[in-house]
Design a protein that fits this description.
It contains 14 helices and 9 strands. By secondary structure, it is an alpha+beta fold. The two termini are 55 Å apart. It binds zinc ion (ZN).
């Protein structure tokens, strides 16, 4: 670790972070960090006691806008430790509805946040996370926070270049949906039908996959080896992961240099006599 990093670590701990969480910021084990702190001639910063670290949340705690679970998560300590700190600081442990309610709310929050990040439905998500909370508590929590969970039920699925986005989506025909989809080739968002995505009929927007399909081939200037498509060529040089970037450069420049070898684009839709 550099001296700067060590100083940042010390600042994090002085700001209320615990050792382990602060060390994690640098991708290090705390024992390693300790050695670096000493090496740069610093002393390990004193850990703040949990109540001192809870204190900055006082406003939110008293007005009930943050749960013990959330405070604990923020500080990287157990909810039990936070609960003890509440007692010491004289905060009422469970401002509204008692322990059960607060716990359920934090579980509901966890489910809602997961769905917002990964998409999906409420009940399967609860099951997947293995949480003891009802579907109703989750949907009620979402409603009270102005979140429409139905928008996420088809979100973040991947089909070729497409990645489905949170809704609103529209029902169409009997069992199909028009969903906003991000084309990861160009970053544009289009409305696409889920049935077509699932069937593999649409793998990206026209510009990125459709327009040039089959109309280009590539030739290696050295060996005169011909490739029937841009994709076939990129596959042969083992760089399919960079497909979009390489295709873009090849089409922009008309050629591409890979490992010192020049490859040129041939436009099959143009007559061979067209000026080079
Ligand atoms: Zn596109």
């Amino acid at each position: 670790m550099t001296k700067k990093e060590v100083e940042k670590f010390i600042a994090l701990v002085n700001g209320g972070s615990n050792y382990r969480a602060a060390a994690k910021e640098f991708g290090r084990h705390i024992d390693t960090v300790k050695r670096h702190v000493a090496r740069h001639g610093y002393e390990m910063p004193k850990r703040l006691e949990v109540p001192d670290r809870v204190k900055p949340f006082e406003d939110q705690i008293l007005n009930g806008s943050i749960s013990q679970h959330q405070v604990a998560k923020n500080l990287g300590v157990s909810q039990c430790a936070v609960s003890n700190a509440y007692r010491e600081l004289g905060y009422r442990a469970f401002p509204s509805g008692g322990r059960r309610s607060e716990l359920k709310q934090s579980l509901a929050q966890e489910v809602v946040e997961y769905i917002q990040k990964h998409g999906g439905y409420v009940t399967p998500t609860i099951r997947k996370l293995g949480l003891n909370v009802s579907r109703f508590t989750v949907t009620d929590y979402a409603k009270r926070h102005g979140i429409d969970l139905t928008h996420y039920q088809f979100a973040y699925l991947e089909f070729g270049l497409w990645q489905t986005q949170p809704g609103p989506w529209k029902k169409c025909y009997t069992a199909d949906y028009r969903i906003p989809c991000l084309c990861r080739g160009c970053g544009e968002i289009y409305q696409r039908q889920l049935v077509n995505l699932r069937g593999g009929y649409s793998r990206g927007c026209r510009n990125c996959v459709g327009k040039h399909r089959g109309s280009f081939s590539v030739i290696c200037k050295e060996t005169k080896e011909k490739f029937r498509s841009i994709r076939a060529w990129i596959k042969s040089i083992g760089r399919l992961k960079e497909y979009q970037a390489i295709r873009h450069n090849l089409q922009r420049d008309g050629f591409y240099i890979h490992s010192g070898t020049r490859y040129e684009l041939i436009n099959k839709s143009q007559p061979a006599s067209a000026p080079a």
